[in-house]
Write a structure and sequence with these properties.
The complex is a heterodimer of chains A (about 290) and B (about 270).
Chain A lengths: L7 H12 L17 E5 L7 E7 L2 E12 L10 E8 L13 H14 L12 E3 L3 E13 L4 H15 L1 E3 L1 E6 L2 E6 L6 E3 L7 E8 L2 E4 L3 H6 L2 E7 L5 E7 L6 H32 L11
Parallel strand pairs in A: 4-6
Antiparallel strand pairs in A: 1-2, 2-3, 3-6, 5-6, 7-10, 8-9, 11-12, 11-13, 13-14
Chain B lengths: L25 H5 L17 E5 L7 E7 L2 E12 L11 E8 L14 H14 L11 E11 L4 H15 L9 E8 L2 E4 L17 E9 L4 E11 L1 H33 L1
Parallel strand pairs in B: 4-5
Antiparallel strand pairs in B: 1-2, 2-3, 3-5, 6-7, 6-8, 8-9
Helix pairs in contact in B: 2-3
Chain lengths: ~290, ~270
């Protein structure tokens, strides 16, 4: 993580703010509030699907590219998804060279673990000819600015980009013993992915005796341990990971999981609403970001 | 995957013959008069064998055996941090997790692959809260884990093994971290799953299929590691965590005993 050294006094100030009966975080939020989010999809024309997310200061661009490949021998009848996170040195000079690699692999492993079950994304629909041809989705997450809570932001961005993904229709013609794949040349003859049960990551940071969602960079510096959860719209948990160099009490873990489940469900439904609304407004929508 | 240029790796595209076996539903095996295939009850763990201090040249070491899961661990340090950039006033802990190439059904690579790197990070995060890092400022302690044979719960066994090795090395800790794992299969929960019973994402279709791994410091009742895989609902996952905690607490006296015995035999 982009480490900034904060003074003990500043850390105590943040800690006391959260610990008080009247919960007040440094930016005036309650403990279960997210910061302002801006999301838009279809921002990069060369991708199969893309999305840009800005969560306060965190800026993330996600591009999905669908390519044809051979399915893995363990899963011959389904396609695959591959996550790659790029921590660009634009975000912070510490990411220069190989500096961001550790964080990048951490984010991509959490993401792939969240999607590593058949309920979250129907990979079987990505298969064209079992054992021979399938769609491989390369999901690339580009980090443009770090403002805390990268995991949540990345997962929301990924979900939005998958919603926006359009995979061209292919038909398989069998001639004698050979299969021939024909790609539809109509740009509107496409398949969409069903993301209704895809998870969003909710990170709960333990600060003092309480936990907060969507920690800012300052709050992350005060936090000893956090719990990351992949939560689906149904409220099921698709991945769980404790992170950081502190440990947690079992009771507080159950409390955090309860909050995470609640927040995650709301997050998923409101994200889907926003995406559907954006889709409806079509070309009339106003652009908010720097792209386009 | 970067390839190792110093070794002759053989053809790149070999496959394990095991991918052609048909995966049986593990439930049909469990339901045979409420016993698992190896004769255990659902919440019964496998027999445990522990042996601290078997690598004489390391500062501390440990070996753990749970039926066919065999893990060895060595701890070196505290020693000087060689790279200037890594300087820190607090002590540092590094973990390296490696499956021996012959340890799993599938052949492993000589170099660490993505899964092993992920497991190294998980192991580090499990051990870091337990070790008193401020006791060895500007120095580092290295933990090396090698899985000799994998028959399920490699991570949980490694957590236990590594903390035992750290204790054997005399590194000051708040408590020993005990690892345990549970497999969730519908309404059944299998504690300490074997390789056959372990969760594989490709052959599961329903909700409530997955696994949970925890690392617990029993005497201070703190969880230092918690990971899960697979889609599980809230109640089931809470229940699984509770079951894992109980398992850890059951194993704890065995670990203490093993350490006491090793100290006695040393002197």
């Amino acid at each position: 993580m982009a480490d900034v050294n904060y003074s003990e006094a500043e850390k105590t100030f943040i800690l006391h703010g959260i610990q008080d009966k009247f919960p007040c975080r440094e930016d005036g939020r309650g403990c279960e509030d997210y910061r302002h989010m801006e999301i838009e999809t279809g921002v990069v024309s060369n991708t199969s699907g893309s999305a840009r997310l800005r969560l306060a200061n965190t800026d993330i661009l996600v591009g999905v590219k669908a390519e044809l490949g051979v399915p893995s021998p363990e899963k011959p009848d389904s396609g695959c998804i591959e996550f790659f996170v790029d921590c660009s040195a634009n975000a912070t000079p510490e990411f220069e060279g190989r500096g961001g690699e550790e964080l990048a692999t951490e984010i991509s492993t959490v993401l792939s673990r969240c999607y590593d079950n058949s309920g979250c994304l129907d990979l079987k629909s990505l298969c064209i000819i079992p054992k021979q041809q399938c769609w491989i989705l390369y999901i690339d997450v580009l980090l443009l600015e770090c403002g805390g809570n990268l995991f949540d932001a990345a997962s929301i961005g990924v979900k939005a980009a998958l919603y926006n993904t359009r995979i061209p229709n292919v038909t398989v013609n069998q001639e004698d013993d050979e299969m021939e794949i024909e790609l539809s040349d109509d740009p509107y003859d496409v398949n969409r992915l069903d993301i209704s049960s895809s998870p969003c990551i909710v990170t709960l940071s333990k600060i003092g005796h309480y936990h907060v969602v969507d920690a800012s960079q300052k709050e992350e510096a005060c936090c000893l341990a956090r719990l990351m959860m992949g939560v689906t719209a149904k409220g099921t948990i698709s991945a769980l990971k404790k992170e950081g160099w502190g440990s947690l009490n079992p009771e507080s873990i159950f409390d955090m999981m309860e909050t995470g489940k609640k927040i995650g469900q709301v997050l998923n439904t409101s994200l889907l609403n926003v995406l559907e609304e954006e889709e409806k407004s079509g070309n009339k929508r106003k652009t908010v970001g720097f792209l386009k | 995957m970067p390839l190792d240029s110093r070794r002759i790796c053989g053809p790149e595209s070999t496959q394990s013959p095991h991918i052609f076996t048909v995966n049986k539903d593990i439930k049909s095996d469990i339901l045979l008069n409420g016993e698992r295939k190896d004769g255990r009850k659902l919440d019964q763990i496998r027999p445990l064998f522990l042996r601290p201090g078997l690598i004489s040249q390391a500062k501390g070491s440990a070996y753990i055996e749970q039926n066919h899961t065999k893990v060895i661990c060595a701890v070196y340090g505290p020693r000087e941090v060689m790279r200037k950039e890594d300087f820190s006033m607090k002590g540092q802990l590094t973990c390296e997790f490696k499956f021996a190439t012959f340890s799993c059904k599938k052949k492993r690579q000589h170099q660490q692959d993505a899964e092993e790197k992920d497991l190294s990070v998980q192991l580090l995060e499990a051990l870091e809260p337990a070790v008193q890092l401020d006791k060895f400022p500007k120095a580092q302690v290295n933990v090396y884990i090698t899985v000799l044979q994998n028959d399920g719960i490699a991570l949980a066994a490694s957590i236990t093994c590594a903390s035992l090795a750290l204790a054997d090395a005399g590194i000051e800790m708040y408590d020993i971290v005990v690892g345990s794992s549970a497999r969730i299969h519908g309404d059944v929960m299998l504690v300490d799953p074997s390789e056959e019973e372990e969760y594989r994402s490709q052959d599961c279709k329903d909700v409530n299929e997955g696994k949970v791994v925890i690392g617990l410091m029993p005497s201070i009742n703190q969880i230092s590691a918690l990971t899960s895989k697979g889609e599980i609902d809230f109640e089931t996952i809470s229940q699984a965590i509770k079951t894992c905690i109980q398992t850890c607490q059951k194993v704890y006296p065995v670990l203490q005993n093993a350490l006491v015995n090793s100290v006695k035999t040393k002197t």
